[in-house]
Structures are given as C-alpha cells and as structure tokens.
Design brief:
The protein is an alpha/beta fold and 252 residues long. The protein is globular and about 60 Å long. The chain is built from ten helices and ten strands. The chain folds into two domains: 180 residues, P-loop containing nucleotide triphosphate hydrolases (Rossmann fold, 3-Layer(aba) Sandwich), CATH 3.40.50.300; 62 residues, no CATH class. Bound molecules: adenosine-5'-diphosphate and magnesium ion. The site of adenosine-5'-diphosphate (ADP) has 11 residues, from helix 1.
C-alpha cells in the first residue's frame, strides 16, 4: 500500500491461521494500521491481494466484508454516545426488517419479533462481557476501557469469523484489560473466533497471542511465539536501534 512516495506497507505478506489469536506488533509507523485498513476494505492496495478462506476479497467494502464475517474494531472507539450500551449493541445487526419503513407499516409483528431477538442477543452479549451494570448507561459516559469492551461486544452481535482489533488494550487499566483479554480468549475458544490484534503491551500479547508477527518499515520482520520474537535481534533493533540492544525488556 503506497501513498504517493510512502510505502506504508511494502511487500508485506501475512497469513492468519483459522482459530488463532495472531498478534501484530511493531514500532510506530511500521504499517500495522495501514495493513488492517487494506484487509478490512478501507483502502484498495496498490498491489497484492487479500484472501479469506481462499476467496479473493481484495477491494471489497467494509460492509461486504462484514457480511462475510470479517469485522474490525477501531483504535478510537466508535460508539453512539447518546445511545445506551444496549442500544449501541442493537444498532449492529444488518438487514433488520425494522430498517425498511414499509415493513414497519405492513409487517409490524415481524418487526417486533426481530427487535425482541436483537434485544435478547444484546443482553446475552452484556452478560458475556459481565457489564449488566452499564447496560442502560449512555455509551458516552463509559470509561475509555469500557468503550473498548463495547467495541468488542459489537463484534458479538453477528456471527463473526475473524475480528481485527486495533489496539483494543491501549489506555485501558489493568483490571479492564484482563476482562478484555478473558473475553477475547473465550470468544476464541467457545465461539471459534479467529483474531488478529495490534497491541503494544507485550504481557498482554504474550498471554493471548500465538503467533506474533512483527512489522517494521512496511515489511514483515519476524514471526513466531511471543517469547521468541521478543528475543529476536532484528526485532530488538527495530524497536530500539543499535546500542540499546541489551535492554530487551524495554519492548513494551
Ligand atoms: P502503524 O499503525 O504501524 O503505527 P501506520 O500504518 O499508521 O503505522 O503508518 C505507516 C506509514 O504510512 C507511516 O509513515 C504513516 O505516516 C504513513 N501513512 C499511513 N496512512 C497514510 C495516509 N493515509 N496517507 C499518507 N501516509 C500514510
Ligand atoms: Mg496504528
């Protein structure tokens, strides 16, 4: 993915195994978010392709990808601040009969039944995330971490296959970070979600992700278990530059 002369993603090739929680790390400007934006349909790549289960999905819109079960969350949460948490969740499912005004006039029973179904699903998500105490709270009043949790909850309103998380843990306190981590693990194990997550916190990455892919300057630098890439010389150098390589603990 090139922007004029800038090669934001430069021949990087990654493969995310079905059922995995794959981590994507790298110094600022490495091209991680751009790669996500290409995969999730926000940019059409200058060259190269994106495949989902062998199907070429290059250039499909985020909306089309959503229907294929490919979802992403944003680094900055996208909540509707004047709607409650439950209402935010209920906004997600597509193709609701209620969206068509004619349906509301001519098939009110179907609309009501569908709304009940969506509400029940939203309540199940609220239970799963253990946030019943904020179900009726305006989303705008949530803490930063709770908003991230709501972002994750939005992916649970449909049957997602693969979810891309862009720094879901950034700016989140420890307790809530653990809650988010547990939710990700359970979604992976119990619902079969595949995840690819950009994250900076190496402890969080180490607990959740295998493998971890490292990008730098638009390219893939390394891939492997968290401990391995953490000890990788090229990775340490990419983060710290020469001279500081004896302080690998500084990668975080
Ligand atoms: P990361 O998420 O790893 O920090 P980004 O993907 O945001 O990195 O950015 C990679 C490089 O591409 C940076 O040099 C950034 O300035 C550049 N870049 C990202 N998006 C654009 C854009 N829309 N136009 C021009 N340059 C961009
Ligand atoms: Mg980024």
């Amino acid at each position: 993915m090139h922007f004029g002369g800038i090669r934001a993603v430069d021949g990087a090739s990654i493969r995310i195994a079905e059922g995995s929680i794959t981590g994507l790390i790298g110094p600022n400007g490495a091209g991680k978010s751009t790669l996500f934006n290409v995969i999730a349909g926000h940019y059409r790549p200058t060259s190269g392709s994106v495949r989902l289960d062998g199907e070429d999905i290059t250039g499909l819109s985020p909306h089309e990808l959503f229907h294929k079960g490919l979802l992403r969350t944003f680094q900055t949460a996208h909540e509707f601040s004047t709607l409650t948490v439950r209402e935010n969740l209920m906004m997600v499912p597509a193709d609701q009969p209620g969206e068509a005004l004619l349906n509301a006039w001519f098939r009110p029973a179907a609309v009501r039944a569908r709304e009940e179904e969506v509400r029940a699903r939203a309540d199940a998500v609220i239970d799963f995330l253990e946030i019943p105490h904020v179900a009726d709270e305006y989303a705008g009043n949530l803490s930063g971490g709770q908003k991230k949790l709501l972002e994750l909850g939005r992916t649970m309103m449909v049957d997602a296959k693969i979810v891309f998380l862009d720094e879901v843990g950034a700016g989140v306190n420890r307790t809530l970070l653990n809650t988010i981590g547990d939710a990700i693990l359970r979604l992976n194990r119990e619902r079969g979600y595949t995840f690819c997550m950009i994250e900076h916190d190496m402890d969080f990455i180490g607990r959740l992700c295998d493998p971890v892919i490292v990008m730098a300057e638009g390219k893939v630098l390394a891939e492997g278990p968290a401990d391995e890439v953490r000890a990788n010389e090229a990775v340490i150098e990419a983060y710290l530059g020469r001279g500081l390589r004896n302080k690998p603990g500084a990668i975080a």
